[in-house]
Amino acid sequence: MDSKINLLFVGAPDLCHPQQDSHPRLINRDIESKQFDHPIQAINYLRQCSPQQFPSAILAEVDLPLINGLEFAEIYLFEFYLQHPKTALYLQCEYPDLTQQDELADNPAINEILPNSIVPEKIINKMANFNIQAVPC
Question: Which residues pair with 115 in a beta bridge?
Answer without folding.
Answer: 93
